[in-house]
Q: What sequence folds into this?
């Protein structure tokens, strides 16, 4: 999915602008929520979103995710794989198949 | 950042549960915003978030980003690099260095 | 807090534009989240938000809350009072006083 | 919509718990976004939300809106009416009628 070049370019972009000073974990979490709201705005009134705008907003969400992971010293692939382990236990295939019901109501 | 194995495991997890039927772009955009809210909750009252909870919520945001990218047929690294191009123009180093001012007020 | 005139003007504004057709509960819930993201953006990098912008974004959140309540046929004061009852039980004064700890960890 | 009793009970609830210390405007803006995410979760996969849960989450959004307005010394009805003035200019009836198009594309 994300190759190391994307991560390196994000970090260089921030370093050149001396922006790490603004990137406390709390500020990055806010930024992810703000950008997620802008992504959602693409789908506010209908499902037919402008593809260019969606790409741009999704990229913003991801960029802040990368920065938060860096700031916390976590590896994005690691945490995704870790969480999948948890989700496999919460949503066993035989119970969860074909339904969007939450695990605590399965 | 994200290696192909993380993406493949996400897609297998969804396929085994037959959940792609719920994953319209609009629903995935909602899901990203919902998970971003849960991530933000880790930092609601102080900056000292529980690292385990942060990892778990950040993983959820990312997982839905991966699913939205798949659904739209876009490559995450591509869109991040594309957006960096735009951001470099909006935030030239000499103007943006050391300030969190928005581009339209620089 | 909100007087009946504010509610009536919101409903007239929507009726004149024939916008109720877009205001499914799900779309209004998205709209609240989108506007909450814009409100949060006022505080993205520092606590010193522009008061005009905050007023405007907070008004947007509220307006969609009013529209959702109308759509669902609920009274805003009623649900606030109802929820306070629940919160009083979850956060008894002697345990919750002076701490931001969540009820399930009190 | 909201009667003064709802506001007074919210303020008493907070005062009894000595929670105003946590309610910086930035923290309240985060709280609104977090609760808006929980409200949106009611509509994550379908439009058929649990009415009890919706009432509860909508009440949470509103409660934090009331607290932010108090903290900033603004009146909720005033800002809603103020914003309607702006929106009437941005969305003139003859152009905006029956369409969900954004004002900058009308």
A:
């Amino acid at each position: 999915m994300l190759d190391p070049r994307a991560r390196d370019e994000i970090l260089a972009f921030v370093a050149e602008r001396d922006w790490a000073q603004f990137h406390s974990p709390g500020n990055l979490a806010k930024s992810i929520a703000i950008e997620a709201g802008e992504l959602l705005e693409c789908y506010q009134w209908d499902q037919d979103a402008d593809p260019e705008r969606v790409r741009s907003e999704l990229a913003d969400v991801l960029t802040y995710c990368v920065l938060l992971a860096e700031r916390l010293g976590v590896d994005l692939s690691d945490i995704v794989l870790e969480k999948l382990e948890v989700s496999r236990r919460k949503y066993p295939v035989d119970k969860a198949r074909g339904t969007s019901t939450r695990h605590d109501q399965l």
